[in-house]
Each structure stands twice: as C-alpha cells, then as structure tokens.
C-alpha cells in the first residue's frame, strides 16, 4: 500500500497538474513493462504496483525508484511464484504466464542489484546485505546509522533492529521504539516490531513490558501472540493486569495517531 501511494504521488509530480497515469495508459505507452507479467487476475494489486514502479524507474532511474521497484518485484514474485504452482487443467496458458512472470521477477531483481552495486541508499544497502550477504553494504549502512536518511526512516530503523537483535538487545529495543515513534497516523506497523519487543522483554524478565506489548499486538489484530505465559508470570507475583490493559490501549491509540513516545520507565 505504501509502495503504491509513493509511486502514484511521484507519477503525479511527473505529470505536473495533470491526472496521474492509469495502469491502462502505462501498458499502452510502454507495453514491454506489462507483457512479461502474468495475464490472469492473480496477484492483481502486486502486479499493478510493479507496473507503475517499472514505469517510474524507466522514466527516472534513481536509487529511490530502483528501491521501490525492487521491493515491488519481491512482493510480486512471492505472490506469483505461489500462484504458478496452481495447475490449470483447461487453461495451461495461465500457468505459463505466471512462470514467465516469476522469471521476469528474477531477471529484474538481478538487474536492480547489479545496477545498485555502488549505492549509498540505506534501503538498497540493507537489501544487498540481507539478500546477497554483501558485508561491504552492511559496513556502509552502519556508517550511515546517525544520518537523517536513516534516523528519520521507520523502515530503516526496523532494518537496523533486525541486525542488532542478535547481539545488542537494549539497542534493538531503542530502535524498535524509534520505529514506532516514526510511524505515521493510521499506518499499521510491521507486526514483527511487536513480536520482537514481546520476545525481548520476556527474555529480560520485564513481564509488565512484555504483557503491555502483547496486548497492543492483539489490539493490532495479531493473532499468534502467546500472552498466557506472560499473564502467569505477572499474576504469580500478585500483579494487577487492569492497569496494564489501560496502558496498552493508550499506547496503541498513540501509535495509531502517530504520536507514540518511547516509554523509558513504565
């Protein structure tokens, strides 16, 4: 959703005060950006995102646009690869078009990685490290850790948290808090932020913290949260849960409103 919004806003900027281009217009103007993707209705939203991102990168091949396209292709490929395994008894061409789309995704992602080997874009650096184990990309990303392009980007803060979680729990918690601070109003944070905080706090025996974020996770619609063991730890020591339930609701509301402030002592 964020990808689609970013692409549409950028396309609007490209066309001045005119209406943003539609998918049909892009495919008519540049059919090569559409014809090598799947032809059926599977992965419709991901396909639309990729086409618009391809057009934008074709018009302005900046690192920002390459990053948007790389993320778009990764999401699209996950979807279309699964769909490609579905056999059509009567319509074999549909399966074939999905396989072709999968191959297109691999080819395009490879191209984007090759094109951005010398990048300084934080998101691309993370992708080069996390997908290709490029240690030089990780070194460059860590060197940018205090740069505004990193400190003011929720996604990159979360990426750094996923790196530090292996050996620096407190820094990881700070980065996850910062990610929530940067969350915009009405945006849904990555569910792994909550599950990571719950796991870290439980490991550190900070059960009030773990419980609070478990409740926030539930309020966010995350269903695979094991809250019962945390409740047991709290009730065994005579802790009341009602105050924590209230705190969880207040914290959830602040995150939804884009007004979360990192709790340092609760």
Summarize the structure.
The chain is mainly alpha-helical and 266 residues long. It contains 14 helices and no strands.
Word description of this protein:
The protein has 14 helices and no strands. It is mainly alpha-helical and 266 residues long. α4 packs antiparallel against α5 (92-115) and α12 packs antiparallel against α13.
Strand and helix layout:
Elements: H1 2-14, H2 23-29, H3 44-59, H4 63-84, H5 92-115, H6 122-132, H7 135-143, H8 148-151, H9 154-164, H10 169-181, H11 191-203, H12 207-219, H13 228-235, H14 242-256
Features:
single chain; 266 residues
Low-confidence stretches: none
**Strand segment count:** 0
Major β-sheet annotation: none
Class computed from helices, strands and strand pairing: mainly alpha
Give me the number of helical elements: 14
Form type: elongated
Helix content: 55-70%
CA-to-CA gap between the ends? 34 Å
Note the quaternary state here.
single chain
* SSE pattern, N- to C-terminal: HHHHHHHHHHHHHH
The residue-averaged pLDDT reads 90
Rg:
22 Å
Strand content: under 5%
